[in-house]
Amino acid sequence: MLTFLSSISGLWTQSERLWNPGMVAEQTKEIFEGLREKLEEQPSSADTKTVDRLFESVIKRTTPETIKHSAMIMIIFESLTLYAAYLMWNLRKLGFYLYMSGIAVAFFGSILVIGGWMGIVTAIAGIFFSSIMCIIYAFNLKYLQ
Asked: Quick check: pTM over 0.90?
């Protein structure tokens, strides 16, 4: 049930991002700039400078075009995982493998199409909880046909 809800919610969210990429890009920039300002308030160290460069890279790569590409990749991911959840609900082993392929699409698609730190942030954000669910599904793979 969690995968169904997550996929449907993800499809809705990514559709909104695809329809309004300019607004989403501005909101994302504001979030990262706010985090960056909080980071600058901390005492300076080598780690702080590295994180500051990461934030700067993400802010520069946050454009409406990047948001569109990200949304398209994530719509494919969410669609694959939704169909995979349906198959697993019906005890089909193919669903598990389709679920893993959806995770691969989200991870490699984000890194290859978007690139840079923005691609890595998108990839990790997209697959974090799905990877945990994949492990849980793997433990129950023996019940699928």
From this structure: no
